[in-house]
Design a protein that fits this description.
- The protein has three helices and seven strands, in the order αββββββαβα.
- The chain is of the alpha+beta class.
- Strands 1, 2, 3, 4, 5, 6 and 7 form a seven-stranded mixed beta sheet that branches.
């Protein structure tokens, strides 16, 4: 995962969408607030995107991803250095898929467990940042 510098993390603004990449998974979240004194970012998770069939990121289409809808879950307070700004082109189609009730690759039932596993993996990988 490529970490951004704290200087660029302080450029995050509320309501921006950020991404935390780890291994083959992307957590997309909305920035609520930046706590500069602690160098952390308060974010509201939107979705977890995992490539189907263990493909590498980035993928060319949202149909190649399994999406987990996290919009009803808990907020996170995480080191800002772990996030990068998400590109509009990568997020818009994914958000459209989350709102499509017929999308076969959106999983809402397993979302809390997937987020918990992802949080644990990132914490284990970057203990020194926490």
């Amino acid at each position: 995962m490529k970490q951004v510098s704290i200087g660029s993390a302080q450029q995050f603004q509320p309501r921006q969408i950020v991404c935390l990449e780890h291994e083959h998974t992307c957590l997309y979240a909305e920035v609520i607030e930046i706590v500069s004194s602690r160098q952390v970012c308060w974010v509201r998770p939107l979705m977890l995107a995992i490539p189907a069939d263990n493909q590498s990121l980035p993928l060319s289409s949202p149909e190649q991803l399994i999406l987990y809808d996290l919009r009803q879950g808990s907020d996170l307070l995480w080191p800002a250095s772990l996030f990068r700004l998400a590109l509009d082109t990568e997020v818009i189609s994914l958000l459209g898929q989350l709102n499509n009730p017929d999308a076969p690759y959106v999983n809402n039932l397993d979302a809390p467990r997937q987020l918990s596993c992802f949080v644990h993996q990132v914490w284990q990988a970057y203990k020194n940042v926490f």
